[in-house]
């Protein structure tokens, strides 16, 4: 008579191999040398939104990292004496921006996003003169108390607000009028911080190398999660690769993604309210490799206002991004419209930079690119979200979706720390 053996149980199972999931795994392995940790990842490689050139795959855009997360990441890598530090692996910063109008780039420094110099590049002198009024609202002490529509006294179609609407699309804000000025300021700070960019694959590997080699950490790719149940003190996770068992579970995915497989009855009430009452923003992206030409004279971040498209340019690749509400990203007609805008923006870029030749286009959908809503009427649900109330030694959450900041990297760091502390209780 044949007998079946139950698979080995892990101390911690982490759903998602993005940077937050990898950082939690690193921190847990570092403080629990006898632990066995498993990361389940639906894609064929780790990295999440930071996944860049790897084999025949290409990036999905939105793969920059703020200086604060960069330093946090670097400190983690330094715990491995045999690993290269982060500046050795990735050091390029997104310092140059441009507006593409007609067949011409208007260049400015990335740190001037939401300053008068950036406004002039897009809206001319009229926008620059009026920009002081925008700055006053974004930095006012009451910037989180009212919507932009309530606080703005000039016409909605004034040069300055047209510029701000265009920039807001790049910052993942589809409607500035329902957002608070403070939310717009927080989100714009992500880009004006001159974030780091590059191929993050070696930097991710530097976090996991020693633990994978020692057998402490296993990363199971191609393991899309189907269901999760808990019996007693054990989690049973059903995936496309079979069943896995563990004592503790970390959800390192945005809640709207995890809600597709994680039972509602097991969610903390505060988080379930966020899922039901707030709306994230998605990206539709078009990426293509650069086959000929040098991008050193081309800005690393480009806004194409006529198409409401942004582009991220690296030496090997260019990624065009269209911001779209999450609900609309689930509807084919709206995605098709976004794809058409992306293709037009690509053609306009090639006309403006004829020395650059690109390869085959690839389309991607990033379902939850920006999780934190800037809409004032929805912020109340996030304001009530206290991380200490949702983290538990048996169930923890991490990622840029978990927290109250409009700067997702800040949420990522704080949630990684709080999840790690909860697991170690």
Care to describe what's here?
With 425 residues, this protein is of the alpha/beta class. The protein has three domains: 9-92 and 198-277 and 377-423, 3-Layer(bba) Sandwich (FAD/NAD(P)-binding domain), CATH 3.50.50.60; 109-192, no CATH class; 281-370. It is built from 15 helices and 15 strands. It has helices at 19-31, 67-77, 86-89, 116-138, 148-151, 159-170, 181-192, 201-214, 255-258, 269-277, 326-329, 332-352, 376-383, 387-390, 408-423, and strands at 9-15, 37-40, 96-101, 104-109, 217-220, 225-231, 234-239, 242-251, 281-292, 301-304, 309-313, 317-325, 357-358, 362-370, 395-397. Strands 3, 4, 9, 10, 11, 12, 13 and 14 form an eight-stranded mixed β-sheet that branches. Strands 1, 2, 5, 6, 7, 8 and 15 form a seven-stranded mixed β-sheet that branches. Helix 1 runs parallel beside helix 8 (201-214). The radius of gyration is 22 Å and the shape is globular. Residues 1-5 have low confidence and may be disordered.
Instruction: Return the domain count.
Output: 3
Estimate the helix proportion, in percent: 25-40%
Distance between the termini: 43 Å
**General shape:** globular
- Number of beta-strand segments: 15
Give me the strand/helix succession. EHEHHEEHHHHHEEEEHHEEEEHHEEHHEH
**Class of the largest domain in CATH?**
Alpha Beta
* Second rung of CATH, namely the architecture of the largest domain: 3-Layer(bba) Sandwich
Mean pLDDT: 90
Low-confidence stretches: 1-5
CATH superfamily grouping of the largest domain: FAD/NAD(P)-binding domain
